[in-house]
């Protein structure tokens, strides 16, 4: 009875202290595509990814109901750094869904026109200047801002302190009249947050810089991604060994989940004691680097196979440049390519489950193998050339004696002048499961098999390769079939032996594939990229750095007359592929199981006009 009454009381007091409107909530993921278009149209940096920001504790005074309910001020404000634009994961501030959605639009415009030179100004002056700059550039947003400002002012509370009320008065005047100069200096953390302005003190990029994740031996372990409407806050601490060894103290002194949660577990015998649930409950993560004796560290760090089982290196010493978007310079000879071939490979025939679809694909592509062209004005042929006949008749009536010309036409066939290189992502993410029977690498392997049959049937010149990476010094490139090589059991054996490993340094692989295609003299050259995620590596090749380098590599290929096209099974690809390839140069396959059947059809549509 006591517990039931307690639950009812908690539910009632929480609703009474609630300042949001759940029925009018707008999720960021539901408007993310629209916001990306608006942000770029407003002049925002095109390489920025849109992500939910972290929740931050605020020092503003609470009302009596909020104190009774135990509700703390948590703000999720808008700000941007060199890689991402951070917005609230959801907005339910107003009892009007349209107004909540307009707040997203306004914040995108505000962040797009933000001038870093204003950072030296006091908070109120800086925010007012940001608003004025946005409204001067986009006057149509004036009504939107006035609606948001009035609705927000109605929700703000007066404080019990005279000094705070004076500051609150100045803040309200600054919100409603951004062109009015306010002489009073206000501490933003002592008052309620202003969600229609940018973050007053955004976290610095140096504080948020991510370090390379520790490399663990069990790379194929199951990975559970914890999603939500905000980023988790974290702090870096020294690793403590107090939680190891024999428990020789009373159980009352055991650490709780709020003190320690072993989320990253490099050892196989470490049980999952509800770490995912604990991570969702934590407000802040304590992250540390575990150190120990060499024997333990070797098991922790080694992720390379023994040389007896590692792949065979065919060639080394190949270098490619890489684009540093911060310095805006192409760093020459920055990445090192290693041509590799799997050691455990042997001649293979087409897998049994692919033989029937392969026959259907071959029959379909043999119909497209040769283009038909009419040869006109022939001395003999299958049909009369009416144009030539009328031309000869006209000349004869005009008295021209030289009317000798062919009056027939005949159809001729010729091969398509096309070279295609299919480049497959073989990173560790392809080891993820598609269903109970297949992994991503399995559907990629089947797709390579069927694509080779399709391109062989058309007679097009084609090559196939895979790639993965680990640091810029080790970009592995696996040639599966060269342009001058025929499709044979040896090639099928190489396709059958592909396996996941390491990361995705996409720019270096694209540049080397571009070099290969440059040696082809076909009229049309096509680079097909097959991937399951965005560029990344364990050094700084992540986030915007990897995106910008890959985009530059794609532009380099295009400038050399090569057509890049991406086929991906990443459901989040719409967030970054339009920036990389353009809006018409990629396709997203929602169901990974359909990849093998869809690949040849996509190739047919791409090459039907060539």
Automatic annotation (TrEMBL):
<feature type="domain" description="VWFA">
    <location>
        <begin position="425"/>
        <end position="606"/>
    </location>
</feature>
<dbReference type="InterPro" id="IPR002035">
    <property type="entry name" value="VWF_A"/>
</dbReference>
<dbReference type="InterPro" id="IPR051928">
    <property type="entry name" value="NorD/CobT"/>
</dbReference>
<protein>
    <recommendedName>
        <fullName>VWFA domain-containing protein</fullName>
    </recommendedName>
</protein>
<dbReference type="Pfam" id="PF00092">
    <property type="entry name" value="VWA"/>
</dbReference>
<dbReference type="InterPro" id="IPR036465">
    <property type="entry name" value="vWFA_dom_sf"/>
</dbReference>
